Amino acid sequence: MTSNEVRKKYIDFFVKRGHVEIPPAPLVLENDPTTLFTSSGMQPLVPYLMGEPHPKGKRLVNSQPSIRVQDIEEVGDNRHMTFFEMLGNWSLGDYFKAEQLPWIWEFLTKELVLPKDRLWVSIFEGSKEVPRDEESANIWKKLGVPESKIFYYPAEKNWWSRSGTPEEMPTGEIGGPDSEVFYEFAQVKHDLRFGDKCHPNCDCGRFLEIANSVFIQYRKGKDGKLEDLPQKNVDFGGGLERIVTAVNNDPDNFNIDLFQGFIKEVEKVSDIPYGKNPGGDRSYRIVADHLRASVMLISSGVLPSNKGQGYVLRRLVRRCVFHISKIKGSTKLPVIRNLDKFEYPLKLKSWSEISSVIDDEANKFSKTIDRGLRLVGKISPFGLFQTYGFPLELIEEALAEKGQKVDKNVFKKEFEKHQERSRTASKGMFKGGLGGHSETEIKYHTATHLLHQALRNVLGEHIHQAGSNITAERLRFDFTHPSKLTDEEIEKVEGEINKKIDENLKVTREKMPKEKALKEGALAFFPERYPDITSVYTIGPLDNSYSKELCGGPHVAYTRELGRVKIERQESVAQGVRRIYAVLE
Predict the structure, then answer these.
(1) What is the CA angle 425-412-318, rounded to 5?
(2) Within a 10 A sphere around the Cβ of 540, how many other Cβ atoms?
(3) Which residues lie below 8 Å from residue 410, measured CB to CB, with a gap of 6+?
(4) How far apart are CA 364 and CA 354, in angstroms?
(5) What integer pLDDT is reported at residue 559 of this predicted model?
(6) Backbone φ, ψ for residue 182 (5° rounding)
(7) Which terminus of the chain is more solvent-facing, meaning fewer CB atoms within 10 Å of its CB: N or C?
């Protein structure tokens, strides 16, 4: 069974049971300084789990593209991934355990035809405030799960909140007990390194969690105690890749169709096929996973940089380069095509656009990797980091192969000194909205909108925003354009911006449905990042505006507050992507 078939079966199954399929949240969330990426389907649904009515109703379902940065270093075994799809269904104060658990059992055993004797379940064992979840246990027993395959675990394993156990939850945080389903790979023998006895939560590889039903019914009160939410909710999550792995009865996630295109391209340049060299398989998996994650990030508008989402992309590409060099002795990354056939719930850019970004970053790193690798063990780990741009995890891997370790305390102290030396007066991230709200940054934010529109007017409507960054000292704007701007073009852009500043145009904020804003001509080159009801900033008269964009704000009230804009320099970011730096005078 293919991944497309499993995804479709899941969505269809819950649509038939009264659920509405909702579009997935963007991989990169707008105006959320608390997180870099969407890491689960419930992340954008928290307000509705707390009682706010959802416009689509009380029963929802989707497949959510997700990235978990904390798993980057874990990738290399047969089950961890950086990018994955999370199949999810939700009840917002509607059905609860009595409906959810039988439905999941039916989907797994009838729709996917998983053998019942391979399925084990886990349940919350209870705590001081929350009783043992006997309700779920009784439901599982009625469904035919033998008691010997029902395991009770503490909050560390069978309680969900964004903060951890009930004791770790801050005031106002929501959470609840969960019940998981595990698939048993009977062909995998228990590894005694992980304990005398094997059980569903054992890390030996015999069991794989494929389904988790969370019963969100509590909130942490001001007195530190759990209190009932006004509604009982269900939040289900099941990793698509893991479910397909179980359907195939193969404990290696990387043997499923979603990874095979990447694996086969690497095999073309290696003397040893995947699966024939346990030591080399780790590098195969890292390249396959990181390339796939990089494709998704670039398609979401992320470009390599030294912070935020861009730094994660840079780490992924550099780890790819490092591990492809171990496989074939060359730093050239493989070409991957025909990704659209997997019907990802995320619009992919063309391979030419994706590869130009990946190749540009890979080429930059490959120039230093050979020399740097020769110096591993000869100069300090921080020297490799500072001089050759080696991420810490690559330094650790390279030293481990020589039987050496990184002294992380020494590295941390050196890194802190480096940060102090290079720290600027103020820094802020701008992705359709500002993280910092200083007066100067707000001015730069409005100046960015003027720059964006001026570039489109002077160079053409092919100009698309590819990224932005604002500090208290300057603005940086990335945009699609095939060639370097001439001096005359820069002069025209700068002149138009300052003309609009002199006109003292009013800046107006409106809240409206995203679809309406787009129909009215508002710019939004990452529209999927914005909520259904969003802010729109207009520069100039509402009926004849100069600039109109979906944006999180904030902005100045009138353009004359900016003073003057001076374009300082331009540079190439990747093939077809230019970068401009500008300052206020």
Answers:
(1) 85
(2) 18
(3) 382
(4) 16
(5) 95
(6) -120, 145
(7) C
Instruction: List the structure tokens of 517.
Output: 């804003």
Strand-pairing partners, residue 428, are 470
What pLDDT, in 10s, does the model give residues 465-497? 888 888 878 999 988 888 899 999 999 999 999
pLDDT at 88: 97
- CATH number 3.30.470.30 given to 439-584: no
| Angle 112-115-117 from CA coordinates, rounded to 5° | 145
Is the pLDDT confidence value at 507 over 60?
yes
Work out the angle at residue 262's Cα, subtended by the Cα atoms of residues 258 and 268, and round it to the nearest 5 degrees: 140
297: helix, strand or coil: helix
Looking at domain 3-248, its CATH architecture is 2-Layer Sandwich (3.30)
Three-state DSSP string of 123-148: EECCCCCCCCCHHHHHHHHHCCCCHH
Please count the CA atoms within 13 angstroms of the CA of 126 that sit on its side-chain side.
8
Total length of the chain: 585
CA distance from start to end of the chain = 62
Other Cβ atoms within 10 Å of 137 Cβ, number: 18
pTM for this predicted structure:
0.72
**Three-class SS of residue 566?**
strand
Expressed in percent and rounded to 5, the helix, strand and coil fractions of the chain are: 40, 25, 35
Question: Which amino acid would we find at residue 288?
Answer: A
Each residue's pLDDT tens digit, 152-176: 999 999 999 988 899 988 888 999 9
Containing 429, the helix (H) or strand (E) segment is strand 427-429
Q: Which of 81-95, 308-322, 360-374 has the largest mean confidence?
A: 81-95
Three-state DSSP at 486 gives: coil
Beta carbons within 8 Å of 557's beta carbon, 6+ residues apart: 506, 507
